[in-house]
Structure formats: C-alpha cells, structure tokens
Amino acid sequence: MAKLTFYGGAQSVTGSNYLLESGGVKILVDCGMFQGSSDAEEKNYGPFPYKPSELSAVFISHSHADHTGRLPKLHKEGFRGKLYATSPTLDMTFIALPDNLSLMEDAAARANHSPLFSQEDLDGLSGLAEGVSYGQEIELGPDFSAVFHDAGHILGSSIIEFRFEGKKIYFSGDLGNPPTPLLKPFEYPLDADYIIVESAYGDRVHEDRSTRKQKLRSIVKDTITKGGTLMIPSFAMERTQELLFELNDMHNAGEIPDVPMFLDSPLAILLTEVYQKYPEYFNKEAAYIIKSGDDLFNFPGLTYCRTSEESKNINGILGPKVIIAGSGMSTGGRILHHERRYLSDPNSTLLFIGFQAEGTLGRKIFDGAKEVKIFDEKVPIHCRIEAIGGYSAHADQPTLLSWIAKGAEAGHLKNVFAVQGETASSATLCGLITASTHVPATVPNLNQTVEL
Question: How much is the pTM?
C-alpha cells in the first residue's frame, strides 16, 4: 500500500514538502522554505522528519523558494538521489538559491548562528540535477513512474503525475492563471485517482484579465501625472517578466508617457535572461512577437540596475518614474529602500501585483497600516495603495474547480487534498469541490500520513 505524508504546505501557503512511498521506494515532491510565519525560521532550521539519505529522488514542481529553498539543506543532511525538474526550473533554481544563500548568511551572522546551508551543499546538489521535458516518463521502480506536465505558472513550472500500483496521483505544484501573456495554458489531471491541489486563492476570484492591463495603464498614467513614483514590489520570476512584457506593449503603442523605468533587481535581471533562453516554452502570441524582432523585456526608457550604486542613483532621478524591485512581499530586497523613501509621498503609488502572505510587510501595508517600520525607522504611509489581482500567477477559485472537475470526469477520483493555502482558503475550496464533484476533499494536517 502506497502512502503520502504532508511535511509542509499543509494549512500553509509555503513550505511545500510531500513524501510519497510505494514499493519500498521513497520520493519527495518539493522541498520548500517556510516563509512569513513567526515560526518559519524554526521550521526551516529544524531536522527533516525523514531520512534524506533514504530518498531515491526529489521532484521539483517549479523554482520558487517555497518549493525549492531547503534543497541544499536536504543535500547537507545526506540526500544523494536524483533531482528532477524541467531545464528552465533547474536554471532558475540554481540562480535563485545562491541569492538566497547570500541573504541567509547575512541574517545568520546577525543572529549569531550558522546559515541553513553552504556553497558546498549547493555545488553538491547541482551534481544530482537532471533536466526533463514535459511528457517524459521517468522510471522509479517496478510499477512506479513519474511524468511532468505544464502547469502554466512560471517558466518551466510543472504538474507532476506519479503512476504507481495501477493508480495515478497528480501534484498540482502552483497552477497558472490562464491566459498569461507569455506561457502556454496548464494541462489537466486526466484519469486521476488522487489530486494534491494548491489553494492559495481557493476562496477568491481574480479580477478579469482583460481589465488588468487597463488598470495598470491607468495607475501608471495617474502617478506620472501627479509627478510621483510608482513602486511595484515584484517577484523576480514570472511576475516581473509579465510586467515588462505589458509595459513594453503599452510603450510601443504610445499608451503611456515616456518616463524613466527601472528594473532594480539583479536576481530578476538574471532570471529574465533565462526566459530569453527558452522561447519554446512561450505561447503562440509571445513566440510570434519574438520572431518579429521585438525584445519582450527591454524598451527605451527602461534601465536594468545590477549594482547597488545603480540602485542608489535612482534617487537622483527627479520627476515621475517607475521602479520594479523585489521582494514581492516587501520582506527584503531593494524595494524596502524605495518604500522607505516614497511611502510617505501622497503623489506616489505602491502597486501590489502578487499575493501578500500573513506576517509580511506587504500584507501589513495591503491591510491598511498607517505606519510601518523599515530598517528600524517609522515610515508613515500617505501614498496611494493599489493592487491588481489579475497579475496573480496562481489559479483562482473557479479555475481550480474547473481543473479538479476535469480530473474527476473519468470517475476514478477518490480524494482531493487541498494544500499550499491558508486554512480558510483550503477549507472553502474543499467544500466546493465536494459539492460540485461529489468527491471527498480534505485539508490535511501537517505531518499527516494517508494511505493511497
């Protein structure tokens, strides 16, 4: 009898970590960081509740830190099996992890303890990595195999299907929010016996995508008219590239005024270069534009700020401007310097284009805080606060339900487990799944084991 244990992502948006066992073979799906909560660091530094040395393989759905961030720690504690992911996912993971290491080393030094992992662990991990393609079957043992499918979330993101003991289980990873400006739509969990589905937006409906560009255009123009600064805290992967794509399109069409724009994120710049490396992953529209000779991620007036000196120079640019910088939830990165400078300016705007987890600075601002502390300095908030939900790279409630419904069509679906969402969001989604498909849907507890 196969079994599945939820060692992360249970009643939590972050920390994705699932152990699947069949026929004596143990594999892991994702090994992410816990983020945002008060006990996140304790969870990240704690020992794994399984023996990493006993794992045959680890499968990574995509390259976000809440799915990959503890991989080097896994190597540190003995993992020597195979690491499987799509080639773009591996490229972006091994760009992002060293960036994470640098931040952790600084934080560890301040807290007077060792970092979560070392460069040696990163190097060892990279030697275990094997890039795979969508649709490629990976043999794990007798009657146990895996197949990657397109999740449409970020470049190279995957839904991972496991075939074992005559059954099929699908891990959604993070599902995309189609149609997206760049990527192909996600695939479906056909003929599923079990589904592990993300539920970050299980209780919400996104704004119509057709209005998001209109809203972005309006916010850009309004802020520029007031002479203010538009700050956009943006995740380095996907959100930034989609934003550049749409700003490029608006610029080319003359829909927004010419003002200085800055991509103030060395990590986002490196990841944008990965996007340029894999145009075959793009949808037809983006591929057509590339073939026409347009650089999707660069246009007149846009400056890439790689060094801290280039970042500081933004302050000397007088008049209206647009700044895109990480981190997406304002938990660190260069956006904090810009927020400290411009949050108190009534002519400026802070625009959220992604989910703001509980406990983050971004969530406090989003929820209406009148004052926040940045670098131990109290900063009053007088600027305009805006959010565009249509920029979410996550599927919303109707999209999640339609994805599950497709998986239930064959009549084999025995159970759905809602993960990677706050408890209320997961529970709401489960109630709707059961009501619409008559399939049991469960919100698992952390460390809970289920037989399959």
Answer: 0.86
